[in-house]
Design a protein that fits this description.
Elements: E1 10-12, H1 13-18, E2 29-32, E3 36-46, E4 54-56, E5 62-65, H2 68-75, E6 83-89, H3 94-102, H4 116-120, H5 126-140
Parallel strand pairs: 2-6
Antiparallel strand pairs: 1-2, 3-5, 3-6, 4-5
């Protein structure tokens, strides 16, 4: 499972929740995380914050939450220092992932440990930030 973080496709949280009769007081964007489970609301956030269904993402101070209580906490002003909300997820079969990563024409550049700055930059800028960080990592071995 993954989240598409470099898409500018988004919804307004207030408009989404108003359909359920909830008045959302903040200017919050909800980004498209992928084509799978398109009604699943997921929040990637800094790990100092937690909800009833929160899991650590890695050792880089991020966590992921997906439950109704997270919305209640956000609505009450209990927010993490950084967060981004997504609808849906991305996914691959093991064969698709192998082909995308190691096929004749790989489709991905791998940045094993992206910086906090790269993860938290604006969605439409994340690709350039990741490529810049990857090229810095690669060329630092030579210069």
């Amino acid at each position: 499972m993954g989240l598409m973080m470099n898409s500018g496709n988004m919804y307004d949280m207030g408009q989404l929740l108003s359909q359920k009769g909830i008045n959302w007081p903040y200017d919050t964007h909800v980004y498209i995380g992928g084509e799978y489970s398109p009604t699943c609301l997921i929040m990637l956030h800094t790990d100092e914050w937690y909800s009833s269904n929160t899991m650590p993402v890695d050792n880089k101070n991020f966590a992921i939450s997906s439950d109704g209580f997270m919305l209640e906490k956000l609505e009450m002003g209990d927010i993490p220092s950084w967060y981004q909300i997504f609808l849906g997820t991305s996914g691959w079969t093991p064969e698709e992932l192998k082909q995308d990563l190691k096929g004749d024409k790989p489709k991905w550049l791998l940045l094993a440990n992206p910086s906090f700055e790269t993860i938290t930059c604006e969605p439409l800028r994340i690709w350039n930030a990741a490529v810049r960080e990857l090229s810095t990592d690669v060329f630092s071995n030579y210069f």
